[in-house]
């Protein structure tokens, strides 16, 4: 037989189809909008507007005019809604806008970080987004808080990034992975139940065919012999009228039993599949099947060859089921890959083939029963089925079906139990889905808490009390004043010279932290002693902004 199975070269990604696929995907998502989702979006907008813009509970004492506040709120809403199409872009924009200015927006960044972690599926894109967000945060931090520098300032900057960006991002990624795992398990369970029913149905059909064949070959043969012998006996001239009547009753009973046996055999051999389904879903309906797959977003092509030949209903229906199962498996296990369906009329058989390119991302494979039922269907139609991976990657389902309605080879009953493949155990990827994200989130929290615990445990001795400040007077010798000032460790406040007035010309100043601080001062109280000509020429206090 002429071979029609040819190797399909992998197709390069078609960039022209990317915008259409993008719009089609989001149009489908827009069609799934429910009142609950709209209400959730409105509630989220009200929350971050209340926390960041209008009352500004998080943004601090920053205040602006009414028009400025309205414009800021509209900009925040626009950035928030952008996440529905471009979550990474929305997060990066918000990171720069919020941390490079004084108007705040922590709640907005937290929501966008969670959304980006939830919506960005590939880990490469997730890592790139997190790195870019860190870089923008570092630049914005240098612009908005120049006074908070040094090791402590860098630690505060890293802490803000971890708690506001990294932690929500990891939690969102964990939630997305767990939801995807739950959805995959539910789909797998439904598919296993459906395929088990298919296999059970095929087993029942085989057993019924075996029983019908046994009844036809054994019981039907015996009843035919009884009927023939009874008919011959009725012609015997040596029988009396009473015996002839008994023979006629016997022959009538045998004929009636044969008719009833034919009815029982017909019931046993009747397929449970509706006849109109086999008539409608034929090899000619594969075109509609391919068109439906295209409308669903599958890149599929149909190749027909040879001169069409009239096919038996069973064979034509089996060809349709092969194409249907191949498209279903390709869309399920190789999303985004191109698929080719081939239907070719060879001189002695019909060849149906479905092959797909390798998927863009490696998906865990699992055992199923769809191909098992398909193989049984092809066998009952008298054909052969080949299923396997291609040398260059991808997958292929190919079947050779006869033009005539022949009995399948091997229809004879078998005493061997049916070997039903058990579902594969979850792979490590599925088993540990989301664990990496939540572990990283826990590490982030431990590092931040541990760092601040260590900082808080360090002794601070380089502070000035009120008594010491009052005991120092302008004009005192520098050596006497320096002897009173404490040394040792400074509080981790970064550059304590920030926000101070210009130093007197020609003077050298010493800065210390006051030991009395108040929460209402909105800053840290710093004292300054300036010396010139060996004497104290100025002592002042100022607040270092927070």
UniProtKB/TrEMBL annotation:
It catalyses: ATP + protein L-histidine = ADP + protein N-phospho-L-histidine. Keywords: ATP-binding, Kinase, Membrane, Nucleotide-binding, Phosphoprotein, Transferase, Transmembrane, Transmembrane helix, Two-component regulatory system. InterPro entries: HATPase_C_sf (IPR036890), HATPase_dom (IPR003594), Sensor_HK_TwoCompSys (IPR050482), Sig_transdc_His_kin_sub3_dim/P (IPR011712). Residues 318-404 form the Histidine kinase/HSP90-like ATPase domain. Pfam families: HATPase_c, HisKA_3. The chain crosses the membrane at residues 42-60, 126-143, 155-176, 432-455. CDD domains: HATPase_UhpB-NarQ-NarX-like. It is an enzyme of class 2 (transferase). GO terms for cellular component: membrane. The keyword NADP does not apply. One of its GO terms (molecular function) is phosphorelay sensor kinase activity. It comes from the Bacteria. Residues 207-272 form the Signal transduction histidine kinase subgroup 3 dimerisation and phosphoacceptor domain. Its EC number is 2.7.13.3. This is histidine kinase. It comes from Saccharothrix saharensis.
């Amino acid at each position: 037989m002429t071979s029609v199975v040819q190797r399909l070269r992998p197709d390069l990604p078609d960039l022209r189809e990317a915008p259409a696929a993008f719009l089609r995907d989001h149009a489908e998502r827009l069609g799934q909008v429910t009142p609950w989702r709209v209400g959730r979006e409105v509630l989220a907008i009200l929350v971050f507007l209340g926390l960041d813009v209008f009352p500004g509970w998080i943004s601090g004492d920053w205040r602006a005019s009414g028009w400025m506040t309205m414009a800021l709120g509209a900009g925040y809403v626009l950035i928030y809604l952008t996440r529905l199409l471009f979550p990474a872009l929305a997060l990066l924009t918000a990171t720069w806008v919020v941390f490079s200015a004084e108007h705040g927006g922590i709640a907005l960044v937290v929501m966008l970080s969670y959304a980006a972690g939830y919506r960005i599926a590939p880990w490469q894109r997730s890592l790139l987004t997190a790195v870019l967000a860190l870089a923008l945060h570092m630049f914005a931090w240098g612009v908005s808080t120049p006074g908070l520098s040094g090791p402590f300032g860098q630690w505060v900057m890293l802490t803000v990034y971890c708690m506001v960006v990294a932690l929500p991002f990891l939690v969102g990624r964990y939630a997305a992975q767990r939801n995807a795992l739950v959805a995959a398990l539910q789909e797998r369970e439904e598919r296993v139940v459906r395929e088990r029913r298919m296999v059970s149905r095929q087993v029942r059909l085989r057993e019924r065919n075996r029983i019908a064949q046994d009844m036809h070959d054994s019981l039907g043969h015996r009843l035919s012999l009884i009927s023939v012998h009874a008919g011959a006996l009725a012609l015997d001239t040596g029988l009396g009228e009473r015996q002839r009547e008994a023979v006629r009753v016997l022959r009538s009973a045998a004929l009636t039993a044969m008719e009833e046996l034919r009815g029982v055999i017909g019931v046993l051999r009747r397929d449970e599949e509706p006849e109109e389904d086999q008539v409608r879903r034929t090899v000619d309906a594969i075109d509609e099947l391919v068109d439906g797959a295209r409308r669903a977003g599958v890149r599929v092509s149909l190749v027909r060859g040879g001169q069409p030949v009239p096919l038996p209903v069973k064979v034509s229906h089996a060809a349709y089921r092969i194409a249907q199962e191949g498209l279903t498996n390709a869309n399920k296990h190789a999303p985004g890959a191109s698929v080719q369906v081939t239907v070719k009329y060879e001189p002695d058989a019909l060849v149906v083939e479905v092959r797909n390119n390798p998927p863009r991302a490696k998906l865990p494979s699992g055992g199923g029963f769809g191909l098992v039922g398909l193989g049984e269907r092809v066998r009952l139609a008298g054909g052969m089925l080949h299923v396997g991976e291609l040398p260059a990657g991808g997958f292929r389902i190919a079947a050779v079906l006869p033009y005539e309605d022949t009995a399948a080879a091997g229809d004879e009953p078998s005493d061997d139990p049916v070997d039903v493949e058990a579902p594969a155990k979850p792979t490590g990827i599925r088993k540990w889905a989301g664990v990496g994200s939540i572990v990283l989130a826990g590490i982030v929290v431990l590092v931040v808490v541990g760092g601040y615990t260590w900082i808080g445990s360090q002794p601070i001795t380089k502070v000035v009390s009120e008594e010491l400040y009052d005991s120092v007077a302008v004009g005192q010798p520098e050596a006497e004043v320096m002897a009173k000032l404490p040394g040792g460790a400074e509080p981790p406040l970064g550059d304590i010279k920030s926000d101070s007035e210009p130093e007197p010309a020609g003077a050298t100043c010493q800065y210390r932290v006051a030991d009395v601080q108040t929460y209402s001062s909105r800053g840290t109280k710093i004292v300054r002693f300036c010396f010139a000509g060996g004497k104290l020429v100025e002592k002042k206090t100022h607040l270092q902004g927070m």
